[in-house]
Amino acid sequence: MFQTLLNKTKGDRWIWLIIILLSLISVMAVYSATGTLAYKRGEAVEKLLLTKHLIFVLLGIGMIYISHLLDYRYYAGISKILMIVTIPLLLYTLIFGANLNDASRWVKIPVIGLTFQTSDFAKLALITFLARMLTKKQEDIKNIKESFLPIMGSVCVVFGLIAVANLSTALMLFGVSILLLIIGRISIKQIAIVCAGGLVLLMFIFFLGPRRKTYMSRINSFIHPEMQHSDKTFQADQAKIALATGGVFGKGPGNSTQRNFLPHPYSDFIFAIIIEEWGTFGGVVIMTLYLVLLYRCIKIVTRAPKAFGALLAAGLSFSLTIQAFANMAVAVGLGPVTGVPLPLVSMGGTSMIFTSVAFGIILSVSRDVEENIAGKTGTDKAKVSNKVIVGEIPAFG
């Protein structure tokens, strides 16, 4: 059965290997990091959380498998529906969203009671929609009314709605959008206008938005940690202790002590726990996996036969790697504290599902690339065979 499933698995084998490795690392890291809850509430909580996380990891791999079997061209049509749903969903989140960890970023699903972060859904929707729009408008890509305004409007609206409650995620998504605009041949002048508009919106949200005090506090704590109260720099301080005590090869799996003090060690700061237990070596391994992922995705982009596939793979791969390095930068003290998870590693149900769908779409594009290359090879072989049959012998002079 396993061999049959493996034979049906298509797409870049290196990306599949990275998915499996990150999933295994995730299970081990979350098992260790949830020790903080076992320390406070009892071992039953730890086992419950690990079981829940394991279910989501397996569900995520299932979503990757299903998504990669679906022809990526179908996502062009799906993207319109996703964008239609995204705007009201983000508005609903701002007004009625559940307040978790000092931020209204979550929507509770009726009946089952689970919550999910709408920005994860919005990221997938905007990237697929941008890939579709940029592909569709290539012939009139310089036309401001027909191309620039619809594309700019979708970026700015989604950015603004996410930024009010989740500025870090909005900034990363905005950066990915700009990269897609560049790849999609939008003129530099028009991109500069988008950046200027985004900057104005950013300043408005940062200085006048409902979470301005939180943003200012995090920036000040990052720039001047020595002038802040210990409670404001507590997360960063505990992460630095984890890094400092990890050494080169770490304390060993399950031997973290900072998991008992660091808030959210199984999600936002899981990279700090990994370094504490696996050392600098473990941190370098994680970074290398994401860099290899980016490299393999770039190869897919350059080989994709269709513009939509190339833009789709580029946008999703940029989103995943930028998010990964943003999370790691926060954990090692190179950026202010944010609520960005480490893709496929951090604990989080909806984040795991939407990340898995993104991986599945990338693999779907990769599958198309492989089939296209195989088709060309088959055609070339058929031509050679045909020449032999009809007696067409190359002339040698």
UniProtKB/TrEMBL annotation:
GO terms for biological process: cell division; peptidoglycan biosynthetic process; regulation of cell shape. Its EC number is 2.4.99.28. It is a multi-pass membrane protein. It is found in: Membrane. InterPro entries: FtsW/RodA (IPR001182). Keywords: Cell cycle, Cell division, Cell shape, Glycosyltransferase, Membrane, Peptidoglycan synthesis, Transferase, Transmembrane, Transmembrane helix. It catalyses: [GlcNAc-(1->4)-Mur2Ac(oyl-L-Ala-gamma-D-Glu-L-Lys-D-Ala-D-Ala)](n)-di-trans,octa-cis-undecaprenyl diphosphate + beta-D-GlcNAc-(1->4)-Mur2Ac(oyl-L-Ala-gamma-D-Glu-L-Lys-D-Ala-D-Ala)-di-trans,octa-cis-undecaprenyl diphosphate = [GlcNAc-(1->4)-Mur2Ac(oyl-L-Ala-gamma-D-Glu-L-Lys-D-Ala-D-Ala)](n+1)-di-trans,octa-cis-undecaprenyl diphosphate + di-trans,octa-cis-undecaprenyl diphosphate + H(+). It comes from the Bacteria. The chain crosses the membrane at residues 14-37, 49-68, 74-97, 109-131, 151-184, 191-209, 269-295, 307-332, 344-366. The keyword Nucleotide-binding does not apply. Its main location: membrane. One of its GO terms (cellular component) is cell division site. GO terms for molecular function: lipid-linked peptidoglycan transporter activity; peptidoglycan glycosyltransferase activity. PANTHER family: CELL CYCLE PROTEIN, PEPTIDOGLYCAN GLYCOSYLTRANSFERASE FTSW-RELATED. Belongs to the SEDS family. FtsW subfamily. This is Probable peptidoglycan glycosyltransferase FtsW. It comes from Pedobacter jejuensis. The lineage of its organism: Bacteria, Pseudomonadati, Bacteroidota, Sphingobacteriia, Sphingobacteriales.
